[in-house]
Amino acid sequence: MPAPLPSALILALETSCDDTCAAVTDGAQVRSNLISSQAAAHERFGGVVPEVASRHHLELIGPVAEAALADAGVELNDVDAIAVTAGPGLIGALLVGVSSAKALAASRRLPLVAVDHLHGHVAANFLDPDPLEPPFLCLLASGGHTLLAAVREPSTYEVLGQTLDDAAGEALDKAARLLGLGYPGGPAIERLARDGDPEAFDFPVAMTRGPNLDFSFSGLKTALVYRCRDLGDAETGRRRADLAAGFQAAVVGQLVAKLERALRSDEWQAVALGGGVAANGPLRDAVSRLCEERNLRMKLVAPELCTDNAAMIGSAARFTEPMPYPEYLSLDAAAEAMAKRATGN
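^ that's the sequence the OP posted. Answer follows.
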């Protein structure tokens, strides 16, 4: 098996959900990072439709990859390896990316690196400028995943706790749909919440008792459903800002509470945020205050590296063993996460 490629020029593809992404990375440097969003295509459905996402990836993956190479000022012949998200995610969407990556790699007999999507979010912290070196504690919150990870070396991560039902971003999307807001729901909830009172309604912050580090947001979503039903349509419309502010505060409260508990379990020196929900302003502010109180370094990657993107996949690929031609021709996508959960939790 070839060794990892810490300083290679990598063309990376990411198609795990509803964004078609391609990037060129050169070690820790991002030469290009293109994201073609499908948000408009899924907005009328109030969420991602897997079949729609897959069809859009088929149309976009070629042009987006070509544009990423052009933006980086390189050609496919200059690339040392191809990297691609192999899981977790929507299986049809993943297969588009994996098939495209295999075709590109095989056409030049290049090595191919199959990357864990969640490792990609962690590895976004290794990119310039100001890369974060392990060990650190990573809170990853997105539309499809919410977990706490111990990162002790760049090639892997250990799951300390994860959501038992909805992800944080998924809960925000569902709340936004219930309140008649747009998709994606996180930014819409955050905008509306600025005009609301987070203490106007008492929303539950789940899983705060007991020693575990798992998350749960389904009860919070149900509480919002009941609150809107009790208020009625007219009053719900009038109090939307307060409802959004209270719901967002409960999501942020649970994320920060579990992060604080995890910090007490070990001698961590740094905290990193990852995933699309990491772009949320109140979450960033709350984690920043927590780190200041504990004299910890806090790593915030640029917003474009929080949401799904291919630069993070290129970053993770540097620390993942590549597959030589023709071994990767039998590579398949995986809908489930690849990392193992920590024992004893």
